[in-house]
Design a protein that fits this description.
Helix content: 10-25%
Distance between the termini: 34 Å
Largest sheet: 8 strands, antiparallel
Structural class: alpha+beta
Shape: elongated
């Protein structure tokens, strides 16, 4: 379950002054900061940021049935206006890019009910904010489909209104079905808003829209699709929902999320489509609650970095009233909904889910010459074209592509099989060379193979007084264990602290980038200007994942980076140079007391060493 709004969100509301603001000049996707109209309160809003269309985190706002707030002469537009103001006011900090209403805007579908609701939605119109609406059974004659002709709903929220929005894509000829496009997380998304009862022509139109956007993921909104009458939050298709599934959803892999109202209580389910992929189907409706649901909204917070959608449900109107101390006893129960049906997280591997229609183009290999930035002392890569899984020859010699003569040679523990070091096609997605070596080492007993710089390599005597950058791509297998694989080194330097005249454990090596028993990285080094080991530590890194590590020293300060991000545990100690005894550098090998003690298990990709501090923008994964 995701965290609820809690104190943090109410604090945001206080700062935003939602209760007092009449509107905001910054809207959701498609917004332009247009001139204020009479009655708009735009003080201080010019400096609010607009949604970031490339941010991997963005928010879709959802408003379900508002019918009981617009029922004959019983009209309460204030809750809806407060919700729309919230969306506008938080377009920046919540990165709200679009709003979808799920139908049953009114109770009786009369023009006099649509008029005040239409006026409320002009808060969005005036800002060009992207939104969609659709007709529920209470908005039109529920006995008809989308061929019903003109209606007060169509007069109020038909295509003629939507054409002024940059997110509006088009409508079916009857005007009751629409589609909308917004940009978020660096890509285009499509919202399909279908009528209460789309006809065969309406469904054909929807299929055509999807076909015309072959690489765009689709969020389907409609009024009647799933219900959760069982009371356990588990939703199932309604009769009409089964029809939509059969005729539209199942065979269109682009549809990954559906949202509908109409029924209550809230619930959700997941079904497999014809492509074998998940479709998340959600029902959200609060008309049965106090004050017709108090214009509750849901925020679907997409996070493509975490592959998660976090969902929360609350009433901006009641939160704003709380600020003024005007809540009655029943309203206090409705501020926000934190049960499992209304406050939850949905895991979605977006790249994998969309791969069938929008595959991510892999980054192409980059020539070795492009990696030889000024200061490069050694560069090794393993994209030799050898068959995947083939053992590395006993006579293997890996050339130093920098041209400085720091070639690597293979050494194996006696009795280790030839497959202890083998070629692999696996690689980090941002790795310049598309290949790696798999080191099958461990203990007890000690087994495996490693690479070391050949005798007389210039790198062995380098002191790095001007600074250094040590980079490597690596991956630990899913069955890696601390008991057998801990304290192996991705890269290390031979020679002990005792031999170098340093304090500390006398048998530790003078420099090593190792993997701890908790699969965290440790950079431990004996600098020239210190008499002891100085360390940097990463967090524990998930297994079965490719990582890029970089250790950067500018001649005074050392920083360990993981995937281009600095870790917390970097020392403030002045560090200059690396102690050397003129011995070899090892890839995949770790010595303790001058003898081989542990061998790496996992994949190692490109490795580069530079004699200066490189900026993050020059890292191999950049």
């Amino acid at each position: 379950m995701s965290s609820s709004i809690g104190t943090g969100r109410r604090t945001v509301l206080r700062a935003a002054g939602v209760a007092a603001a009449a509107s905001a000049t910054v809207g959701i996707a498609g917004t332009s900061s247009s001139a204020a109209t009479p009655g708009d309160n735009v003080a201080g809003s010019r400096h609010r940021p607009e949604p970031d269309m490339d941010n991997p985190r963005f928010t879709l706002a959802v408003m379900p049935d508002t019918q009981y707030l617009f029922d004959g002469t019983s009209i309460h537009k204030e809750p809806v206006e407060a919700a729309l103001r919230y969306v506008l006011d938080h377009a920046g900090d919540e990165n709200i890019v679009f709003l979808s209403h799920l139908g049953d805007l009114t109770e009786n579908g009369r023009a006099e009910e649509f008029a005040p609701l239409s006026e409320a939605f002009r808060l969005l119109d005036r800002r060009g904010a992207g939104y969609s609406v659709l007709a529920g059974n209470h908005d039109i004659d529920s006995r008809t489909d989308d061929q019903r002709g003109r209606s007060p709903y169509l007069d109020a929220f038909g295509p003629q209104r939507m054409r002024g929005l940059r997110t509006f894509g088009g409508a079916s000829p009857d005007g009751y079905n629409t589609y909308h496009l917004f940009r978020a997380a660096g890509r285009e998304w499509l919202v399909l808003a279908l009528d209460w009862r789309p006809s065969a022509a309406g469904l054909a139109w929807a299929r055509k829209v999807i076909a015309e956007h072959p690489s765009t993921p689709v969020i389907l909104t409609t009024h009647d699709l799933v219900h959760a009458d069982g009371g356990n939050g588990e939703a199932e298709l309604s009769g009409h929902g089964q029809h939509l599934w059969n005729e539209l959803i199942e065979d269109n892999d682009h549809i990954f999320l559906t949202l509908n109202g109409h029924f209550w209580p809230a619930g959700r389910t997941v079904r497999k489509n014809a492509a074998g992929n998940d479709v998340h189907l959600h029902i959200t409706n609060y008309q049965d609650r106090y004050f017709g649901g108090s214009a509750m909204i849901r925020l679907y917070r997409f996070d493509l970095s975490r592959n998660t959608i976090d969902v929360s449900t609350f009433s901006p109107w009641l939160l704003a009233k709380e600020e003024k101390g005007r809540l009655n006893a029943l309203e206090r129960r409705e501020l926000e909904l934190t049960d499992e049906a209304d406050d939850f997280s949905v895991p979605v591997d977006f790249e994998k889910r969309f791969a069938g229609f929008a595959p991510v183009t892999p980054r192409r290999p980059r020539p070795a010459a492009s990696m030889l930035v000024p200061g490069t002392l050694a560069y090794w890569r393993f994209d030799t074209g050898r068959p995947d899984g083939a053992p590395a020859a006993e006579t293997l010699r890996v050339p130093d592509l920098s041209g400085h003569g720091n070639d690597l040679i293979r050494t194996a523990v006696p009795g280790s099989p030839a497959e202890a070091l083998r070629w692999s096609a696996e690689h980090h997605p941002d790795q310049p060379g598309h290949g790696s070596l798999y080191f099958d080492g461990g203990r007890p007993p000690l087994r495996g193979a490693y690479l070391s710089t050949a005798k007389g390599a210039p790198l062995d005597t380098a002191t790095f007084r001007a600074g250094f950058t040590v980079e490597a791509f690596f991956k630990l297998p899913a069955d890696w264990t601390g008991a057998r694989n801990a304290w192996s080194a991705i890269i290390s330097r031979q020679g002990t602290l005792a031999a170098a005249g340093k304090q500390g454990d006398p048998v530790e090596p003078v420099a090593t980038l190792s993997v701890s028993d908790g699969h965290a990285l440790q950079w431990a080094v004996a600098p020239l200007n210190q008499d002891r080991i100085i360390t940097s530590w990463s967090h524990e890194l998930p297994l079965d994942t490719w990582w890029h590590a970089a250790v950067v020293n500018d001649g005074h300060r050392t920083t360990l980076y993981v995937d281009g991000c600095p870790v917390a545990r970097n020392p403030a100690t002045d560090v200059n140079g690396l102690t050397t005894l003129g011995l070899s550098w090892l890839l995949g090998g770790y010595e303790y007391g001058g003898s081989l003690d542990q061998l790496f298990r996992g994949w190692i990709g490109d490795v580069r060493i530079a004699g200066r501090a490189l900026p993050v923008s020059a890292f191999m994964n950049a």
